[in-house]
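Sequence in, structure out. Go.
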Amino acid sequence: MAKINTKPPAELSPKELAYQVKLSNMFVRSSKQLSVFETRIIVLALAKINFEEKVSESQEIWLTLEDVKQMGGNSNNSYALIKKAANEAYERSIELTDFDDKPGWKKKFRIFQSCTFDEKKQMIGLRFSYDFLQHVSILRNFILFLPRELKGFSSSYSSSLYLRLMIQMKDKATGLPKNKWTETIKIDDLRWALGCEEGTYPLLMNFKRRVLDLSTKEINESPHTRFKISYENDNKTKIGRKVTALKFHMESKKGDLPESDFDYLFFGAGKPDKISKKKLVLTEAQLDMVSDWLSGNNGSRKLENSGLTVSQFYEYLRKNRLIPLNLDVNNPAVYKKWLIEKLSHPDFVEAISPFLKKLGFR
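Output:
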């Protein structure tokens, strides 16, 4: 049975709410029409699921208004508003096409099997459906993201577009996030993935202006998203003068994030590590040894023998916004001291696990 944190959300710390959210690529590409608030409560509930063990639909996950506000709510939000969103999300269904890689197959299922409302404490309890959880616990072809990455979006299309464009983010050769990548998506498939119902903005000009341009602006301007995007008509797939696909360009954002944000930033896809977060802890001797290697303070031969360099490791930290830009990394003593502190956190150890594995850790 999955370990799902079921204690009242008011008792959860901000860091506990910063867990990763996992969704299968098939689900991200699926048809859905979720409002901004529906997306927020689904993502926050998913963030409390431990993906390392079998996920169970039998346990209830509780959310409060304060939880939802962490995703960009404001003082005008109320318990009645999140209750309404939960009720509407309960009625939603997801439709998959070419299910199980069988052309012509379709499948529809609900996201939630039940919603419970505690009127006195103003909390909502959610139980995900069995079918939905299959697209959470799937072992291959999935994305991982943090709830805060979707924080502040005013358009429901922004979340769907952001997650859809994340699918190709991982470099299959290295297992690390790409700095730049492109993807060409058929317009019909894009409408489907964003939940644009049939007849909604039928003219491409309106679809771009009312959906894509607004979502692009929100994604690019948000301080919480990992990459910025742009798009253009794909002229190679035109049928006559008709545009049938769009080409999207993604580029990782540069710059620093507040300390409280980048502690838990890590992207994964493909088959997840079997190692438990509880085991991602280094001994004091290992902390000193690994921080020596990675900071260049001592042990450069160990890095070289593993095909790594200090600069390569720093570039990984910088690209993934895991390190403050004002840290004096050219001072090995300062760099090592910072690394020792960060390496004491299991989430940071998980984030740099590709490097640790090359250094011999399993």
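Check: The chain is about 35% helix and 15% strand. The two ends are 25 Å apart (CA to CA).
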